[in-house]
Structure formats: C-alpha cells, structure tokens
Design goal:
The protein has 186 residues and is α+β, with helices and mostly antiparallel strands. The protein has four helices and twelve strands; from the N terminus they run ββαββββββββαβααβ. It has helices spanning 26-36, 107-110, 142-149, 162-176; strands at 4-6, 21-22, 41-42, 48-53, 58-60, 62-64, 71-76, 85-92, 95-96, 99-106, 122-130, 179-184. Helix 3 packs antiparallel against helix 4 (162-176). The chain is globular. The termini are far apart.
Length: 186
C-alpha cells in the first residue's frame, strides 16, 4: 500500500474558505484515499493523480453561475512566501458534495521544488469536491493551470508542450467559464 500524508497547503481548505472542505477525521480521509487509490485518474502530468472518494463529510465550494450573480475578487498569496494571485469567487453557501476527487502529488514531483513535507509516497495537495455527480475529474481552473505551466510563484511544472498546454487550457476554460468558487457568507 502506498503511504499518503496531508500537507499543510490543503489545510487552507476550511469551512470559512472559498475552497471545498471536509469534516471527517484525518485518519478517515487518508483511509478513503488509500482504499480507493486503485481507482485513481491521471492528473495533468506524470506523478499527479486524482483519487475518487466517498462524498459523505465533504462540502463543495464550486457553484454554477447564473446570470446576474455578483462576482468578487481578491489579490492575496495562497501561502506565506508566494506572490499574490488573483482569485474570483461568488458569495454564497457551500453544498454537500456529490463527487470528491483528492489530488495527490507523488514524492518525486514535490521534491522538484523542495515542496515535500514528508517522505510519504504521495501527499494530498487539494480536495476537489463537486456539487454534481462527475464520472471523471474536472480540469484544474485556468488560473492554476497557467501558474503551473509558466512556473509562476507556487506553480508546479506541467511538462506540457505548447499544443498539450493549449488543449488543456481550452478544456479548462470551457469547463470553468460558468463556474466559480464560493466564498461563504460572513
């Protein structure tokens, strides 16, 4: 069985954040990942996988936008030491997830930029919970793909050539054009 750890980066995904979050224990989260790792889908590059897990105890911070929705934004670093990034969100309520994809980066991917926190085989980088039933993982948001591909602060190299990047960016834009992260009401 591969070893899996939870990173400090994914801890930003709280009930108060604009990201999906979970209410189950760390042990339950890791157990669900390990028990489903054979169902993993390949990520945007070798060494990145997305593992589907049971959605109970997960809340989605993604929303399908409706005409007239007001979007808000901010320009802040994702974590200390990174340059600020633009983030756009819609104010609203998170919903019970119907599908959850746990994003894992392999140890060798994380050590490329000295971002590993453990010696585990994989580290959990993101919990992507969806308000819809999805049979395949949705593409990463365009802003994340761009930051990764162009080596921006906090990005992880995609190792894509130009045509692979354009195809991935097209898929991302088409999926995310009418969606946004939810910023919970205060």
């Amino acid at each position: 069985m591969p070893t899996v750890a939870i990173t400090s980066f994914v801890r930003r995904q709280t009930a108060q954040s604009q990201f999906s979050h979970w209410t189950i224990s760390d042990e339950d989260l890791i157990g669900r990942v390990v028990n489903n790792i054979e169902k993993a889908h390949p990520g945007y590059r070798e060494g990145v996988i997305l593992v589907p897990v049971e959605p109970e105890g997960f809340f989605s911070a993604d929303a399908v936008l409706k005409s007239g929705d007001t979007l808000m934004g901010e320009f802040v670093p994702r974590r200390e030491g990174e340059e600020p990034r633009k983030s756009i969100f819609v104010v609203g309520d998170k919903s019970q997830a119907k599908t959850v994809w746990v994003v894992l980066y392999a140890h060798n991917v994380l050590i490329e930029r000295n971002e590993n926190e453990t010696d585990c085989d994989y580290e959990i980088i993101s919990i992507n919970a969806s308000p819809t039933v999805d049979s395949v993982p949705p593409p990463m948001p365009p802003e994340t793909l761009i930051a990764n591909h162009f080596g921006m602060s906090g990005g992880t190299a995609t190792n894509m050539n130009d045509s692979e990047f354009v195809k991935s960016l097209r898929d991302s834009v088409m999926f995310w054009k009418d969606k946004a992260h939810v910023r919970p009401k205060s």
